[in-house]
Amino acid sequence: MSSYYLKKEECIMCGLCQRKAPTCIDYDDNSIVCWKNTDQDEYLPTKEEEQPLANAAKCCPTHAIRQRKN
Ligand code: SF4
What we know:
Blueprint: E1 4-6, H1 16-20, E2 25-27, E3 33-35, E4 42-43, H2 47-59, E5 65-67
Antiparallel strand pairs: 1-4, 1-5, 2-3
Bound molecules: iron/sulfur cluster (SF4).
Iron/sulfur cluster binds near residues 12, 13, 17, 33 and 65.
Protein name: 4Fe-4S ferredoxin-type domain-containing protein
Pfam family, one: Fer4_15
């Protein structure tokens, strides 16, 4: 199981990722991607969230959602 982190400075506010992983991803007051349930940099998805979050990372046009390689 891998954690993910966000490169917020690369988010172009397209809104695709939350549709893919609505339990993990939200947007801040400036419409920039953030985690839905934590302010921490890294997010470890639950087993059920793994595939949706992987799909969100894959669909991001700027690769702002990144998997931490262990
Ligand atoms: S898909 Fe990428 S660019 Fe689009 S809102 Fe999500 S993090 Fe930002």
